[in-house]
């Protein structure tokens, strides 16, 4: 059972660690110590629910609804594109930009909305949790599936809280003007790249 849990943990990290919309947003909240633990917690809760659904038989739900997947994909394209342009604008404005208009300062409601957006409007989250982790976990015997799911869920908890705490600890350096501009630029490029990748994939699949 330990080996199965370790497999779930390792595969979960492999799915979560590559930089994406969730990681970029958790990193930015951690740098500014702006509700970073709330952001990490919400990302973890969403992952835990989706991993559980995927491993215990929900992997086919996403594959069975091409229209739903298409709507989700184009919603993700619009959301990620908007957030990418917002980050690039913040990088361009630098220290002269209005803090109230930048992605640096957010209230609780804005953080909740943005966290849910980068999580639930990103089709890659469903592909990683429901499809990949779910399909892999469903291959185990029923008595081993909880161990695999627990390992994958633990990976999500360890990663997102480590990212949030690490970014907050390094915030005195990471929040410097030039460094923050560079981070905003990278985040913006990543978001626009993900939006373009989703759009191209959807067009090719249609």
Automatic annotation (TrEMBL):
One annotated GO molecular function: amino acid transmembrane transporter activity
Main subcellular location: membrane
GO terms under cellular component: plasma membrane
UniProt KW keywords: Amino-acid transport, Cell membrane, Membrane, Transmembrane, Transmembrane helix, Transport
Subcellular location: Cell membrane
Pfam families for this protein: LysE (PF01810)
Keyword match Protease: no
Segments traversing the membrane: 6-25, 37-57, 63-85, 106-127, 147-170, 182-205
InterPro entries, per database record: LeuE-type, Lys/arg_exporter
Membrane protein topology class: Multi-pass membrane protein
Family assignment from sequence similarity: Belongs to the LysE/ArgO transporter (TC 2.A.75) family.
NCBIfam families, per database record: 2a75
PANTHER family: ARGININE EXPORTER PROTEIN ARGO, ARGININE EXPORTER PROTEIN ARGO-RELATED
Protein's recorded name: Amino acid transporter
Species of the source: Aeromonas lusitana
